[in-house]
Amino acid sequence: MQQLSSMENTVLGICAGLVEIGMAQPLLYWKNAVQQKLPWTINPRYLYRGLAANAINFSVLCGIQFFGTGVIQQMIVGKDSLDRRLTHTETIAASFGGGVISGFICGPLELVVVQQQVCSI
Q1: Beta-carbon neighbour count of residue 90 at 10 Å?
Q2: CA nearest to 101, candidates 74, 63, 59
Q3: Where are the alpha helices (DSSP H) in the chain?
Q4: What is the pLDDT tens value at each position of the chain, 121 positions in all?
Q5: Residue 41: partners with Cβ closer than 8 Å, 6 or more residues away
Q6: Closest CA to 4 of 63, 70, 56, 64
Q7: What letter would DSSP give residue 80?
Q8: Where along the chain do its domains lie?
Q9: CA neighbor of 2 nearest in space, from 76, 60, 99, 102
Q10: 74 burial via Cβ count (<10 Å: 0-12, 13-18, 19+)
Q11: Which CB contacts under 8 angstroms, 24+ apart, belong to 90-95?
Q12: Does residue 60 contact residue 82 with C-beta atoms inside 8 Å?
């Protein structure tokens, strides 16, 4: 990630988020159904309800995380030494930092989603 541009990291994160939410959507539906005491189903019409909104939310989250992680990795190695490989500790620190950056943006978005779910019950 440290050798990719900020835009490339962001696009990679968005694509990863779209793939992940496509696979995780049924699990999210079942989790929410249990929390809201709704009946369990395997009907795809219900499992994939809200997929577009979830895909937008999750792809933005992953895009921000990949962007932030890439920027932090570049800051660690510096602009002139992009060929240097990060240590495991540096990789973990950069990933943690990318998650922290995304938290400031996506935390309030998640709060809105939860509040809308509560209001619709």
Answers
A1: 16
A2: 63
A3: 6-35, 44-47, 51-77, 88-119
A4: 667 888 898 999 999 999 999 899 889 888 888 888 888 889 888 888 878 888 888 899 999 999 999 999 888 888 666 677 888 999 999 999 999 999 988 888 777 766 665 554 4
A5: 33, 47
A6: 70
A7: G
A8: 6-119
A9: 76
A10: buried
A11: 94/69, 95/69
A12: no
* Tokens encoding 42: 């395997």
| CB-side neighbour CA atoms (13 Å) of 49 | 10
76 neighbors 98 (Cβ within 8 angstroms) = no
